Target: GNAT family N-acetyltransferase
Amino acid sequence: MTVPLNITVRPTRCDDVYALPAIERAAGERFRRYPELAWLAEGEVISAEQHLEYAERGQSWLALANDRPVGFILTEAHSSSLFIVELSVDLDWQGKGIGRQLIACVADHARKLGLTSLTLTTFRDVPWNAPFYARLGFEQIAELTPELRQKRDDEAAHGLAYESRCAMRLSLN
Model:
């Protein structure tokens, strides 16, 4: 007998943050399929302390599958957009619509804040990155806001090849 999958998304609570680094680490395992990006599977993840800061600011949401934490999304408000800092879904739970639900949740939050878009930076050619977001309506943007330009520069400084990344925007109007 198959147990029905019950997915819920809610704001991250302080006692949730200790589970989030392991989710990000598990999500990163997918990068092992790409030799030039495999190092990301071993890379640094966001610490529980950093997650706590996002949760305390109301910028973190948790996805639970049958009450078990399986994904999260972190954001920060920019001048007209809500920037997605990180979206991670445990590798074993990917492909079940959890990422879509997390994005829908933050889109609603952005609208309540009066923001007109969601933005993010991601890998151009990795299937679960830019192509995934494009299926959700995000479009690549060439003209970057100062905040997005800074994000791209920070990524390059941390070893991510500039030409392999892109900025994307989803209009909420």
